[in-house]
Amino acid sequence: MKLKAALLVLSLLVTANQAMAGTPGLTGIYHGQHLITMRGCPGACQAGSELVLGKGIRNADWSWNFDEGWVLIRGTTLTVGFDYEVQSVGNQGQGDDRLTAGFTDNLDGTYTVYHGFQIYNPNVGNPRADTSTTFEITEDPDNPNRIAIITVDDEPGGVPDGIPGTQIVSIFPMTVQPDFEGSARLEGSSSGGDGISDQLKERLGLNPDADNADTDGDGVPDAEELGGDPENPLDSDGDGVIDALEPGAAAHDARVAAGVALLDGIPGRRVTGDPLSGTIAEASVGEAWRFTSVTTGYMSLATDTDGDAAIPDTTRGDAGLEYQHGFLRFDLQATAAVSDPVTVRLTFQAPLPESSRLLLYATQAVGGVERYQLMASGAYQRLDDHTLEISLHDNGPWDLNPAAGILTFGAAPVENTLGGHQESSGNGGGMDMAALALLVLLTAFRRWRAVP
After folding, report:
1. Which residue from 4, 20, 237, 315 puts its CA 20 to 30 A from 204's CA?
2. 263 lies in the same domain as 394
3. Same domain membership, residue 334 and residue 262
4. 204 inside domain
5. For 140, which DSSP code?
6. Are 179 and 241 contained in the same domain?
7. Any idea what the CATH number is for the domain that residue 66 is in?
8. Are 361 and 373 in contact (CB under 8 A)?
9. 216 to 109, 123, 144, 222, 417: CA distances (angstroms)
């Protein structure tokens, strides 16, 4: 009987160690990025009852100092329009000191950060709470210079609720649980062994783990394609995409912008939980035009500043659609007099939605403010599973730059998962049921605060 009991205890210990696979006792300073998911519970929190209230519209930076036990977590905007901020307990200090939170190493692979959390929405008084978040931090077995960081379910009473994060109660209109996920690299490390730091490579959109330290796979090492000053990398054709990202001849042809990673990703490596993060796209145009800038990211634009808006409009398009490919924006400059439509070809590494389900949102100036609008199906053509052609006019309705010979355009291929879809609804600013529920609760909360 004693032997069975001992074996049971040993089995439980082994199971616990397997379940908590983090790395205790980390040292050094690490820099990286995270993506936040905000969950809320209209009632008691338990797995399956929570709502996803929103995600960060882009990755945000964080820095971890394991020698001194502090972390600096930058905030961004949630997809429902609120900015969030992670602060020190009590929101003390000035500048970055105000945003620097302390943490403890729990010696089991988890690290608990003690911090403030604030959402900026003046309609509900910019609610703020001091709280804690526990992370499992794991050293990459294939690269000790890299750590993976996830939020674990850690509740003050010690009883998990099945939802990643720690409950913040009685402060926000509903119980909320911030969930951060990301990674970081050891300061000064060079995983490629080429003397270019991982941190600089990630800032430039390069893959620190690329085979032979060659992100674009054209046989020329990143270090060589960056040029003599890696802080100011070469862009031989001036198209806004550095040579180390553009393979082969594309690096010297301004009519082609290649090797551009989607969704804040890095070519060949997913940075976020988005399935297509790190897949690449290419844009090409005819002889009379050249690219001067190409950027990608999430389908999001600046929020409204109207204090009367219950939820600022993040102009992400209509609720219920799939925005997996994110957003691609480019600037074109004419090299000769042009009058015919400009045909831009976009080629995506990941397959596009099938023709019957494909929609294309594009940015358009509405009342002097950029908004996403649905393009008419006749303005673009799906050539195959990976390729779109779009017809544009200089200073036409989709050109955001009225200067002659300059064309600025942004587009997001979307999968229509709603079935029927009315183009008149494509004004940007649709919200899903979670956001609608939050809006109702925020309105009630605002009225409650106004009662003397």
Report:
1. 315
2. yes
3. yes
4. no
5. E
6. no
7. 2.40.128
8. yes
9. 35, 47, 24, 8, 33
Whether 112 and 171 share a structural domain? yes
**What is the chain's pLDDT, residue by residue, as a tens digit (452 residues)?**
444 444 333 333 333 333 458 999 999 999 999 989 999 998 889 999 999 888 887 889 999 999 999 999 999 888 777 889 999 999 988 999 999 999 999 999 999 999 999 998 887 889 999 999 999 999 999 888 999 999 999 998 889 999 999 999 988 888 999 999 999 999 999 988 899 999 999 999 999 988 889 999 999 999 999 999 999 999 999 999 999 999 999 999 999 999 999 987 889 887 766 789 889 999 999 989 999 999 988 776 655 544 444 444 444 556 667 788 989 999 999 998 877 899 999 999 999 999 999 999 998 888 777 888 899 999 999 999 999 999 999 999 999 998 889 999 999 999 988 765 444 333 344 444 444 445 444 444 444 344 44
In Å, how far are 228, 295, 327, 406 from 241, measured between CA atoms?
17, 8, 16, 18
**Do 49 and 162 belong to one domain?**
yes
Judge whether 429 lies within some domain.
yes
C-alpha dihedral over 315, 319, 323, 324, to 10 degrees? 140
Asked if 411 and 361 touch (Cβ cutoff 8 Å), the reply is yes
User: What pTM, to 2 d.p., does this model score?
Assistant: 0.78
Count of domains forming the chain? 2
Domain that holds residue 112: 26-186
Q: Where are the alpha helices (DSSP H) in 114-190?
A: none
| Three-class DSSP category at 248 | helix
What is the token pair recorded at 279?
């897949």
> Are residues 82 and 139 part of one domain?
yes
- State whether 342 and 412 are in the same domain: yes
Note whether 156 and 297 are same-domain residues: no
